[in-house]
Amino acid sequence: MFAHGVASGDPYPDSVLLWTRVTPSAEATPGSGLGPAVTVNWEVATDPAFSRVVSKGSAKTGPERDHTVKVIAGRLEPGTPYWYRFSVGRAVSGAGRTRTAPATGAPVDHLRFGVVSCTNYQAGYFSSYRHLAERGDLDAVLHLGDYLYEYAPGEYQARDVVVRPHDPTVEMTTLAHYRRRHGQYKTDPDLQALHLAAPFIVTWDDHEAANDAWSGGAENHTEGAEGLWSERRAAANQAYAEWMPVRYEPGGPLFRRLDFGALASLSMLDLRSYRSQQAANGVDPAVDSPERTITGAAQMDWLLGNLTSGGPQWKLVGNPVMIAPVRIPSTLSLAEVAGVQKLMGGTTIDGVPYNVDQWDGYEADRSRVVRHLRDQGIKDTVFLTGDIHSGWACDLPADPLTYPTTGDSVAAELVCTSVTSDNLDDILNAPPRTSSLAVEAAIRTANPHVKYLDFDSHGYSVLDVTPAGVRMDWYVLADRTVQASAATLATSFTVGAGTGKAVPATGGVL
Amino acid sequence: MNPDRRQFLRLAGAGSAAVVLSAAPGSSWASQATNPGSARTRTYVLVIDGCRPDEITPGLTPRLAALRAEGTNFPAARSLPVMETIPNHVMMMTGVRPDRSGVPANSVFDPAEGAVRDMDRSTDLRFPTLLERLGTSGLTTASVLSKKYLYGIFGTRASYRWEPSPLLPLTGHAPDAATMDALLAIVSGPDPDFTFTNLGDVDRLGHSDLTGTTLQAARNTALADTDLQVGRFVDHLVGTGKWDSSVLMVLADHSMDWSLPSNVISIDLILQGRPDLQNSVTPAQNGGADLLYWTGPSDQKAAGLESVRSLVQSHPGVLSVHDPAELRLGVEAGDMVVFCRAGWRFSDPYVVSNPIPGNHGHPATEPIPFFISGGSPKVARGRTSSEPARTVDVAPTIGALYGLEAPRGGYDGVARTSGFVP
Question: What's the pLDDT band for B37 if we cut at 50, 70, 90?
Fold first, then answer.
């Protein structure tokens, strides 16, 4: 009955979203549109034995929503662990563990988040999810996008190896495809384990719909041959709303803010739905046109409104694509440049912003954010980023021209690497930590605000937040293509309160 | 108070110069027993004028950094409008916002005098301060303020006060070495329960630092020197056995921002195309903030101010325009408050009128250091708090330490008692 597991998400101080999917009959497979309507019961307890149930209810589902269930469990206490489960008749789901956010404005000493992105099923196993699930100490897991990929088997995998083929065996373009692909991902045992262990806070990047998506299309969308973009995106969004533990319904905004007492706010961005089409390349005058946007006007106003003084101390931003400027040095070989270009999905030209798909391609919007932080003297903003299949720790310079002298930074950016998706050594077809080292060194030299860069590793991050600082630990997998892969701590960086700067961490947790 | 009835005392300073204090009639010059025994708590508010929170580092300011690490730090602390010296010192000592204290800025247009002037008169401040309120509770207080205008506005409110000397030409402030001589003399002599000290060098050298946008050479020298003076103070408390009963509250009144010579906003120039407005608006400059006063015909005021707002707002260096009431500034702040962006400054009537590269007053200069430290067992150690501390929180925090009742109408600030052991 509960073949796709259970999940929770978007914790508020008094409620949390619960999710599951039921299979009431053999034909009710994901995307089939078949199977009967069902009433699903849910309950929330303060203990794993469910001896003290504090909230319960029921919800109807059926083929019209692919037999997924999303409910808000309310009347909960802030900052409290809970267990939840679903039942249909005598069938009972596994018990998930979740946790409400601390009370609004309450002092909070410590938060710990798992941070992941870029989980391509075809490129390997989700060992990162398993390692995070086994920790048992996470307040929530942030998924910064590319939770699933649209490609058909053979189109995008681990170098040349399809570790696990996608289902359906075509690029997903229709509602049935998107539902079925979500269903496949939700059968992964490591993914199920992590959803069971902690609430998720998610946003999408492009691959939940199609590569390099923008408001009117996508690089990996052929208008006509693959239908209308508006219809394809609507299908992707509907399946996402059905299958993800997120307070999002089609037609509404995905960008939203969650607060964790006086310690932190978390603004989750949607950088695909409202953005202008990517510029042709880094020297296209469109790059800094004030008419183009990556956020859309309403989301920008909302974001700047969240980046203010007086509210929670840390302003965390769940940011699907990098905001720190990155210039590619002219010393790289053609092969290296091509590798970076392929990794970043952008057009590379020496000495200019190289990735027109990230904030580098939307300079006016980035300038709005940087100017706001600088003009208003906003401290303690940290961008948490995914997308580019590599680990980075960066300052966000107040002014790139004077940064090498002043070191003035308005915020820090911490980028988690991909759980499985290809990165530079895969693209260069070289062993890890060989060819990429020179590229990393050259990029860091050309970009002094980049403090850490690992172009090769796959894995996950753990983020600790305290009033004194934010710390990210990067864990790397031994081998993403091995189901039982171990993970080791690679490095740690901290952003001290009031500094806006990423520096190597020393000692234990803050 | 009639100045003639003040008492004066010449104390031996650490250097060759003597330290001259004044006191209210009847004040004792010896250490008081008003707060006696082991329960006595000495409290010192040290204002590092114009210091940015990120400038306190173990490398550049080791003594300040150590104090911050040992006590309770409030990294989300900020100055309040207008981010200038006088209003924020007044907020610290009153615990109320300018619409209740009467002191919204350093510089205001005084309609009675028909001129722009500094708020440096004791009568400008119309709300009771901690200095006299603690005094009426039987405690002794002192003010050791490096800037002449601060000495002016707080006047004779403290039990003991030092008149800043020697004053440096141009800056109108006493160097930190002299200010620290005075503080040490006061601690050694009358040994008050509460002392309010302003160290002005970091601000003064920041204003004039022509390398402010890059190297900040003069500024960094001042920071290192001020840190030495703070170290002298701590060493003195330790050496005289007072450290274990001392609470230090260290903060800044505002921070500092540096502008390029090309980034100058002249209200006069903006209004040049509208002589009717130009002749009807008087700006009071406060670094990165301008207070605008309508001094033209009253029947044209509403429409005139609307036009001024529209013209001023369109300047690329202007960040925002506010009704003074939005910022709780009171009638003294005039009709309109204009803030500049980071890296800009106001200069009137000509763009060369304000040549000072370092400025404050605008929102970019709100973040400040703010921490509670000291040797007293009351200090919570090694903590960092997310609380949004503000300059206006100083009076309620110190008041809470001494069990002082809130003033009539209550505080606008919050007692940051998380800096103390419960």
Answer: very low
Q: Got the DSSP string for B138-198? A: T--EEEEESBHHHHHHHTT-SSEEE---SPPTTT-B--HHHHHHHHHHHHHTT--SEEEEE
Amino acid identity, residue A238? Q
Phi, psi of B19 (to 5 degrees): -110, 125
Q: Lowest-confidence range among A106-110, A216-220, A284-288, B128-132? A: A284-288
**Are the C-beta atoms of residues B185 and B13 closer than 8 Å to each other?**
yes
Q: How confident is the model at residue A424 (pLDDT cuts 50, 70, 90)?
A: confident
Whether the CB-CB separation of B331 and B104 falls below 8 Å is answered with no
Which residues of B fall within a CB distance of 8 Å from A497?
Answer: 73, 75-76, 384
8 Å CB contact of A499 and B54: yes
Q: Which tokens is B218 given?
A: 């003069």
Distance CA A391, CA A395 (A): 14
pLDDT, one tens digit per residue, over A238-263 is 999 999 999 999 999 999 999 999 99
Shortest distance between the Cα of B318 and any Cα of chain A, in A, equals: 10
Chain A contact residues (CB < 8 Å to B): 107-108, 261-263, 309-310, 312-314, 371, 374-377, 379-380, 398, 402, 405-406, 466-468, 497-500
Identify whether the C-beta of residue B28 lies closer than 8 Å to the C-beta of residue B192.
no
Question: Is the peptide bond preceding residue B407 cis, with omega within 30 degrees of 0?
Answer: no
Residues 6+ apart with CB under 8 A from A156: A120, A122, A123, A149, A421, A422
**Is residue A306 predicted with pLDDT exceeding 90?**
yes
Convert the pLDDT of each residue in A121-144 to its tens digit: 999 999 999 999 999 999 999 999
- pLDDT of B5 strictly over 60: no
Consecutive H or E run containing B233: helix B217-239
Which tens digit of pLDDT belongs to each residue from B112-123?
999 999 999 999
- The full set of domains in chain A, from first to last, is 1-100 (2.60.40.380), 101-504 (3.60.21.70)
Residues of A in contact with B78 (CB under 8 A): 309, 377
- Contact list, B213 vs chain A (CB under 8 Å): 402, 406
B interface test, pick of A315, A376, A406 with most B CB neighbours within 10 Å: A376
Most B CBs within 10 Å, among A108, A315, A379, A506, to test the B interface:
A379
Confidence of residue B169 (pLDDT cuts 50, 70, 90): confident
Q: How far is CA B295 from CA B115, B312, B328, in A?
A: 11, 17, 22
CB-CB under 8 Å, A263 with B386? yes
d(CA A259, CA A262): 8
Q: Is B367 on the interface with A (CB under 8 A)?
A: yes
CA nearest neighbour of A457 among A484, A487, A483? A487
Residue corresponding to tokens 């903060």: B251
Q: Which of B343, B364, B388 sits opposite A377 (nearest CB)?
A: B364
